[in-house]
Amino acid sequence: MKIEIINKSKHNLPHYETKSSAGMDLRANLTAPITLKPMERCIVKTGLFMALPQGYEAQVRPRSGLAIKKGITVLNAPGTIDADYRGEIGVILINLSNEDFVINDGDRIAQMVIAKYEQAKWIEVAILDKTNRGEGGFGSTGV
Q1: Which residues does residue 26 pair with via DSSP β-bridges, in sequence order?
Q2: Is the dihedral of CA 83, 53, 61, 137 positive or negative?
Q3: What is the bridge-based pairing of β-strands 79-81 and 34-36?
Q4: 18-71: per-residue pLDDT in tens?
Q5: Which structural domain, as residue segments, surrounds residue 84?
Q6: Distance CA 35, CA 58 (A)
């Protein structure tokens, strides 16, 4: 798949680290470091702008290493970039740790996955078909 992209950052384009990677790392594009205090959130700009094909979205997800080692995650995970959005890609980060976290220019802050989607068309009905699970939810299928 080919996607048009404008790179106004000082960094290389996002790329897959391995042949089987699903996500590409997004990097902070900063003029000065950002210090994220515990429980503080901010939008970190990437300097990237893109035009996704109709029927696709870009999902912005946390990086597992930042999450487990530093308590940094994407607040609206996964964030969605719609095919008709043309603004700069920004990542909403939150610091869930007890320590300040400094974001520097070029830091890998999130990962982006390109995903196909379909728009749903609702069909109102009076009843739904029966299943073994029924109305069971929130842990009803096991421990």
Answers
A1: 110
A2: positive
A3: unpaired
A4: 999 999 999 999 999 999 999 999 999 999 999 999 999 999 999 999 999 999
A5: 4-116
A6: 27
